[in-house]
Amino acid sequence: MCKILLISIFIVFNCHFSKGQINVSTTSIAGFKLMSLPRVNVPVGAAWNDVTGPVGLGASQQQIIVTKSFDNLNYLSSDTNSTKLQLGVLSFLKSGGYFKSLSTQSLDLVSLSIVGFNDVNILKNNVGNSIIYDALKVNKIKLTIKKANLNNAKAELSKLFTKVDIEGEFDKGNEKEIVVGGIDLFIGYRLFKIKKAKEKVEKLKFHLEHQPTRDGSIILSSNYEAETKKTIVNVCPCNILKCMSDRRKNGDESKAYQLFNSCGFECGWDFNVITKDILNANGVPEEYHFIAKAGTLLKNKYFSLYYKPTSNGLEAAFLNIQQLAYTPVAGMAALSTGKSEAKANVTTINFSFEQLSYAQNIY
Asked: What angle do CA 204, 208, 210 make, to 5 degrees?
C-alpha cells in the first residue's frame, strides 16, 4: 500500500504574489463588459472568438476562484453603470415570464464578486489567443415587493435559481423587503489577449544523492537531485519502493519491472522543488511538493510551480518533464541520467496581457 502524503502543487502567495489573478487596474471592474441581459454561466478561462464569442467550457469548477468580493456597487465607475446592472438583473428575472405581475418591485444588488481561475496552464495553452480572463457575478439581491406577492415571488425565484436562499424578510408598510442569496448570476466579463513576452529554459541535470555517514562511508539511495541558479529539484521513487517491498513480503513474485510499474501508477514518483529566490512569509525558500503517477517511464508532464504579477502581465514557472526513466535494481532504483534519456527543465514564462475592446455586442 502507498504511504499517504500531502499531494499538492503549492501556489505562492503573500504581499508580492497573487493566488490566481493579477491586478491589472486599481479600479475593481475597469475594462469589464457589462451585459444588458445577465447569464447563469460565463465560461471563465475559455478562448474568445471575435465573431462567435467563447470557445469551449473554460476553467473547471476546481480551477475557479473568487478574486474579489464587495457588498455594493460603490466600485462601479458611474451611477449609469449601477442602474444598467440593476435593470439587467430585473430583465433577467422577467425574461422567463416570471415577475411580470410584480411591476411595483424595486431591486438592489447587495453582494457581488469577481471570479477568475488559478491554473496558469490556461494561459500557457492560450498564448496568442484571447480569453475570458475573469467575470463579474451577483451573489445576492434585495427585492422590495408587495406583501400580497411574497409567496408568488419566492416560488418564481426557486424556479429561476437552483440554490436560492431567502436570507431575510423585513416589513415596509404594505411592502416586504427580502434579501435573496444563492443568485450566482453573471453580469459582466473581461477579455485579454495572452502574449508570451519571453521564455527562459534551465535544463536539469540529475545526479545521485549520496548520504555520507559519520565513519565516512557512503549510503547509496534512489534519490536524485538537479540544481540550477534558481531551483533545486529532487526526485525519488520512495513510496514505489516501499510498495514493492510490502508486496514482496506478502508473497508477490512478479518481476521487478512489473512491480515498479504497478506500484508507480498506484503511488507515484515523489518530486520536491525548492525555489531559491521565492521566499515564504518566514523568509525561507518556498518548496513545492507533488506526485506524478507513472511506471518506470515518465514523459511529457508539466507542473505549475509559482506565478506572480508583473507590470503588464504575469510571470509563471513550470517544471517540465519531457522524459525520465527509473530502472529497478536490487530493492532500489537507478535514474537514467544520459542526455538522451533524461530530459527535464524549469521553464519561466513572462506573459503580457492586452485588454480587448468590445466593438461587437455578441455575448
From this structure: 135
Residue 17 has pLDDT above 80, yes or no: no
User: Which residue bears the cell 465573431?
Assistant: 51
Q: How far apart are CA 264 and CA 245, in angstroms?
A: 13
CA distances 202 to 104, 176, 233, 348, Å, are 65, 64, 12, 8
Closest CA to 141 of 188, 73, 195: 73
CB 295 within 8 A of CB 326: no
The predicted model scores a pTM of 0.67
Stronger pLDDT, 265 or 141, i.e. the higher one: 265
The pLDDT value recorded for residue 131 is 93
SS3 content of the chain, % helix, strand, coil (to 5): 15, 45, 35
pLDDT over threshold 50, residue 1: no
1-10, 78-87, 286-295: range with lowest mean pLDDT: 1-10
Contact 63, 117 (CB under 8 A): yes
Please, which residues bridge with residue 117 across strands? 64
- 55-84 pLDDT per residue, tens: 989 999 888 888 888 876 665 556 666 777
Domain range summary for the chain, segments of one domain joined by +: 33-192, 196-353
Of 86-95, 229-238, 287-296, 313-322, the least confident: 86-95
Give the model's pLDDT for residue 93.
77
φ, ψ dihedrals at 62, nearest 5°: -70, -20
Compute the distance between CA of residue 294 and CA of residue 275 in angstroms, rounded to an integer: 25
Cell, residue 318: 513550470
Residue 351's contacts (CB-CB under 8 Å, 6 or more residues apart) are: 123, 127, 194, 195, 196, 197, 313, 314, 315, 316
Residue 255: CB atoms within 10 Å: 9
What Cα–Cα distance (Å) separates residue 258 from each residue in 247, 262, 343? Answer: 12, 6, 24
Interatomic CA distance for residues 136 and 77, integer angstroms:
14
